[in-house]
Write a structure and sequence with these properties.
The structure holds two protein chains of two kinds. Chain A is globular, with a radius of gyration of 25 Å. In chain A, helix 3 runs antiparallel to helix 12 (246-273). In chain A, strands 1-2-3 form a three-stranded mixed sheet. Chain A is built from 21 helices and three strands. Chain A folds into two domains: 12-78 and 310-487, no CATH class; 79-244, no CATH class. The longest helix of chain A is centred in the first third of the chain and has 32 residues, at 33-64. By secondary structure, chain A is mainly alpha-helical. Chain A starts with a helix and ends in a 10-residue tail after the last helix. Chain B is mostly helical. Chain B has two domains: 1-45, no CATH class; 52-363, no CATH class. Chain B has helices spanning 2-13, 16-22, 24-44, 51-80, 87-112, 123-149, 156-174, 179-182, 203-226, 228-238, 240-246, 250-276, 286-299, 305-325, 330-343, 347-370; strands at 116-117, 120-121, 188-189, 278-279. A two-stranded antiparallel ribbon of chain B has the order 1-2. Chain B has a two-stranded antiparallel ribbon with strand order 3-4. The longest helix of chain B has 30 residues, at 51-80. The mean pLDDT of chain B is 86. The chains are: A mainly alpha, B mainly alpha. The A-B interface holds A 61, 65-67, 69, 272, 275-276, 279-282, 284-286, 288-290, 292-293, 296-297, 299-300, 424-425, 427-428, 431-432, 434-435, 439, 468-469, 471-472, 474-478, 481-482, 485-486, 489 and B 81, 83, 85, 149-150, 152-153, 155-157, 159-161, 163-165, 167-169, 171-172, 174-177, 286-287, 290, 293-294, 297, 328, 330-331, 334-335, 337-338, 341-342, 345.
Amino acid sequence: MKIKAFWRENNTLLSVALILLALSIFGLFSMGLEPFVRTTLSGFTLSALYFMVAAGLTLVFGLMDVLNFSQGSMLMIGAYAGWQFYTNPTFLFGLAPLVFALMAGLTMMAVLHPLVSKWRIPEQWQSRLRALLLVLAVVIGVLAVAGVDFRGLASTAMVATMVAGNPLAEATLQEPLASFWIRPLLLFLSGALIALAQARPGDSTVVVYKDQSRRSGMIVAGLLALVIVATLVRESGPLAVLTTNGNLRFVLALIVGTLVGAGLGAVIETTLISPLYVRPLYQVIITMGLAFVISELIQLLWDPLPYAMSRPPAFSQPGKAENIWAFFQGGNTTVDILGVTFPSYRLFIIALGVLMFVGLTLVLKYTRLGMIIRAGVQDREMVEALGINVKRVFTLVFALGTGLAALGGIGAAPFVPVEPVMGDRYLMQGFITVVIGGMGSTTGAAVGALLLGLARAFGDYLALKFSLSPAISEASTVIIMAIVLLARPAGLLGRRE
Amino acid sequence: MSEKAEKRVNGKMGAPLGWIRQHWGELAVVVGLILFPYIFGLLSGTSVSQGATKFWQGQLIVMFIMAVYAMSYDLLLGYTGILSFGHAAFFGGGAYAMALFLTHVAPKVTDSYRIMVGSINIADLLMLLAGFLLAVLVAVLLGLLFSAVSSRVKGAYFAMITLAMGQAIHILSKATDFVDWTGADEGLHGVPVPIWLNPTQFRLRFYFIALAFMLIMYLITRRIVNSPTGRVFVAIRENESRVRMIGYNPAVYRSIAFVTAAVIAGLAGGLYALWTMSATPSMTSSALTINALIMGILGGIGTLIGPMLGAVLREFLGHFFYQWFGARWPLVFGVLFILLVLFLPYGIVGTWRLRRLELRQGWQRFLRLFKPEKE
């Protein structure tokens, strides 16, 4: 009886596992051991990447019913940010003071709120004052960034890759501090003006929380300190980063890429997504437009060319490691696994994907945030009624999702070309993954990613065998999606309607 | 809407003069477009088929074709409420069908057969018509394929699946396996368009054909939208479960809308292939789908005339943006698009229809400032 109940509960997962087992036995005998192991491992690598894109998609959709069409672009941004940081972080260090200054200005809102709501302003002047403040903020913001050579900053890493082996070959001259200091100041002012307009001066109908304002005050102070530090290390920072150990630099790049993605996600959620909860169709449209803007912006900054990021030293010592332990000591480029020579970096990606899945599952199961997310997926109104600030949870989850995608991007950067079509490509594969796995389920995303990654790898193998291009196997992954949709429209592990 | 229908009935019963009076705005636009090459030629002092006049004819041709494409997208998004992100597949499918047929099949037929009507060889013309038929066929097949896969889902889910499928079509159009046929990344260039339709030699003729194409497509689409089927489309957009309750099958009607839009977009794609004498992977890319969205949102979705206006504006502004901002000018449109979605979601025409009375009152108040007070 127990077996029967177990089967009924997990029949989807078990049947998928059985089908995979049957297919792998068939593959093992028809392909031979060496190609089979190699293809399976490549499949796992791809699965890990797809999972990183799909995890955020499925989390966000499950909780807030928002489908983020810019998820692929977030992966691309992670890849570009990490690549820039690893190769030559001048671009990121140059932008950091400006971004932090604007953020500090915008965070002023909660601080200003209790102050300005008491102002006595006639009602018809309130909206005019807001419009005036916004216009002023835009003008000051434009003045602040006018003349910053963004393209020049962006091109630093490209130059560095050309001067072979020495990323320090050209320490780019930057705007002197004597004239630069005004820019963060103006941006802070611009952000503060926007915050002032958003705080609705004179509007005494708004509810004001005093304790929130105190906490925001501390955040603003912290951000301002960051601005000052970032302004000071603008020129010395890149050099300091570049002279550190390559492995440490790579770990830092992973963190920076993830933070950039998560920060961008938080900004997108608060500015673009949250005003549109009343118009869900437009939410989708705006994320699609955002993906377009990001791809155009990246092409503007780095030209529509593919770049190759070099691997960190832990994965680039020449020679082949005999086994995994030998690799840990030597840091070789390739590892011998069951007689197959396999790139060691790809193993790292697989480990990253597995780690992410385990971490996400643990977070969802054992933390307070995870509890709220799981409850929110079940019944959003109820969670709201219980007094949880759903808005903040939404922002957090969105940032988590984009951060995971960005982490995937920087993880992938050393072995796939960093190029502007990355966004579209991984968006498509991420979508197919979540359609297969079912929306709103993290395990589903993992299963979908596993299936899709293996299908892609074996598809590429077959395409090569029949002398077709890999494009065919990429396009035919849609067929898997179609089959799953026709059989189970809600996906393998999705909620049924 | 009913007011409009009433007007049309009145117009039909009255003299033709009455009909003209009621539709003077639309007629003025049509007449203006017909006379455009001549007037522009007179003003700029160039001949009708040379210099600036010829250049702007070309710009207008692209506007006409893109207007039809944007209109077909509006049928989906604005009227049926379907969010499809694979629309470029239909446009590109039509373009590739036409280009492939004219490049690889038509020359063999026209070389070996002559089809005479009187003393004129119409083999060229027949091949062209066959090309359009093929474009329609491809569009219908693609539309059926898309709606078969996604018939059981809707909303954002639908958008996701159509995006994946459109992307698959794009990848196939770039695949190196069919390089002999499609030219892979490069695309198909130098399509042998019939000599009497060559867009560089006989641009004025092409201009009128494109204009007629746009007008006919507009009339057909307007007829569809105002037909009982079109009413069901709108009803699906407003409340799908109620439509099912009344006894219509929403899946069937969604598929009808989808295939119709696909056919219109496919025809536009076919004509576009004739105009550029090429078919390239950029015609199936997701950027083109986003262009349809931009045009629609700019002009106002659900108004039919709005997306056409949006297409015209986009092409017109794009010409100048290219001069001002260089190769990455679509970025400006992307940012503009996001701002539009946030602050002007009904677009130009939609907002005008919503605020017509207010604006008119404001205008009259403005005029009254200059009028002397009545005694």
